[in-house]
Specification:
With 292 residues, this protein is an alpha/beta fold. It has a 7-stranded mixed β-sheet with strand order 1-2-5-4-3-6-7, with helices on both faces. The chain has a 3-stranded antiparallel β-sheet with strand order 8-9-10. The longest helix has 16 residues. It has 2 domains: 184 residues, HUPs (Rossmann fold); 93 residues, Pantoate--beta-alanine Ligase, Chain: A,domain 2 (2-Layer Sandwich). 39% of the residues lie in helices and 21% in strands. Helix 7 crosses helix 8 and helix 10 runs antiparallel to helix 11. Strand 1 and strand 2 form a beta hairpin. The chain binds pantoate (PAF). The site of pantoate (PAF) has 10 residues, from strand 3 and helix 7.
C-alpha cells in the first residue's frame, strides 16, 4: 500500500523499501534535505517533538515505525511491546500530512535473516544498558545502519532519554563513515517528571504517579553530586530504592558523557551524567540527567 487517505488528504505510507526509495528519489532535489526520525511506534509527545524539529530543519521528513526484533534480549518484552500503527499514523497525520511514513515488515528489513551485525563501539556498548541487555546495541546498530542505507537522510533525530544509544549511533556513523548528522534532542516529560516512553503505556495510573520518584531521585542526585563524591551519591540512590518495595533498581550509574566510563574519582574536565534503570511491576524504565 502506498498512501493513507484521511478525509481525502493523502499521507504517504510505505511498507516496502523499494517503493520508499523510488518516492524519495522523486521528491529529492539538488539542495533538498531529508530529516529522519526512527521509531518503534507507540508514539508519544517525545517522538512528535523529534518530528517537529526535523520538519523545521529539513525539506522532507521520514518517520520509520518498526519494532526491531534484534534489539530485544527478552522475548516477553518484544512480544508485549505496544504495536499501534493506526493510532501512530493518525498522530503523524495530525502533526503534518507531508511526513513520509515507512512501516516495513520484518522481512523487508532483514530479508529472511533476522540477525545482528557485530559492532565495535569502542567500549560504549559495555556499560549500563549493555551490561544488562546483552546484544541490544548490536541490534540497534544493525537496524539504524540499515534504515540509514534505505532512507539516506541528511539529518537523523534521536531522543536523549536513550543517551547511551545516542552516543552509540554517533560512534557507528563515525566508524562507518556515514554521511548523516546525528542530532540529540531533549527529553520530554510527563507533568510529574516521568520521562516519556512507549513503555509508560503499560503502567497503571497509580504506577505512573509513583514512577515520578525516578526523576525526583535524579534531580536530588544531581544536587548531591555538587558536594559529594560519586560513590556516596550512588549509595544514596541505592538506599532510596532499597527502602521502596514498589521499585526494583537495576542500576544507577554516574559516567563520563563521552566515554560512558563510570565515575570513580570526580575530575573537573569531565562532563558527568547520571543513568538509571528501574523496574516497576516488571516494566523497565530508564532515565538520565546531565550533572553539569
Ligand atoms: O529508540 C528507539 O526507539 C529504537 O532503539 C530505534 C532507534 C528506533 C531503533 O530501533
Amino acid at each position: 500500500m502506498f498512501a493513507l487517505n484521511f478525509n481525502k488528504i493523502i499521507m504517504p505510507i510505505f511498507y516496502g523499501k523499494a517503493a520508499l526509495a523510488e518516492f524519495l528519489n522523486s521528491v529529492k532535489t539538488q539542495n533538498s534535505t531529508i530529516g529522519f526520525v526512527p521509531t518503534m511506534g507507540a508514539l508519544h509527545q517525545g517522538h512528535l517533538s523529534l518530528m517537529q524539529q526535523s520538519l523545521a530543519e529539513n525539506n522532507n521528513t521520514v518517520v520509520s515505525i518498526f519494532v526491531n526484533p534484534t534489539q530485544f534480549n527478552n522475548a516477553e518484552d518484544l512480544e508485549k511491546y505496544p504495536r499501534t500503527l493506526e493510532e501512530d499514523t493518525q498522530k503523524i497525520f495530525q502533526l503534518n500530512a507531508n511526513i513520509i511514513v515507512y512501516a516495513p515488515t520484518v522481512d523487508d528489513i532483514y530479508e529472511g535473516k533476522v540477525i545482528s551485525q557485530n559492532f565495535d563501539f569502542d567500549g560504549l556498548e559495555n556499560q549500563m544498558e549493555g551490561k544488562f541487555r546483552p546484544g541490544h546495541f548490536n541490534g540497534v546498530g544493525t537496524i539504524v545502519k540499515r534504515l540509514f542505507e534505505i532512507v539516506s537522510p541528511n539529518n537523523a533525530y534521536f531522543g536523549k532519554k536513550d543517551f547511551q544509544q545516542l552516543q552509540i549511533v554517533k560512534k557507528m556513523v563515525l566508524k562507518n563513515h556515514l554521511n548523516v548528522n546525528i542530532i540529540g534532542c531533549e527529553i520530554h516529560r510527563e507533568a510529574n517528571g516521568l520521562a516519556m516512553s512507549s513503555r509508560n503505556e503499560r503502567l497503571s495510573a497509580s504506577e505512573k504517579e509513583q514512577a515520578a520518584i525516578i526523576y525526583q531521585t535524579l534531580l536530588q542526585a544531581k544536587e548531591k553530586f555538587k558536594a559529594q563524591d560519586c560513590k556516596s551519591v550512588k549509595q544514596w540512590v541505592k538506599d532510596v530504592f532499597d527502602t521502596n518495595t514498589n521499585f526494583d533498581l537495576e542500576y544507577f550509574e554516574i559516567a563520563d558523557e563521552e566515554t560512558l566510563i563510570p565515575c570513580d574519582e570526580k575530575t573537573k574536565d569531565k562532563n558527568y551524567r547520571a543513568f538509571i534503570a528501574v523496574f516497576v511491576n516488571n516494566i523497565r524504565l530508564i532515565d538520565t540527567i546531565s550533572l553539569k
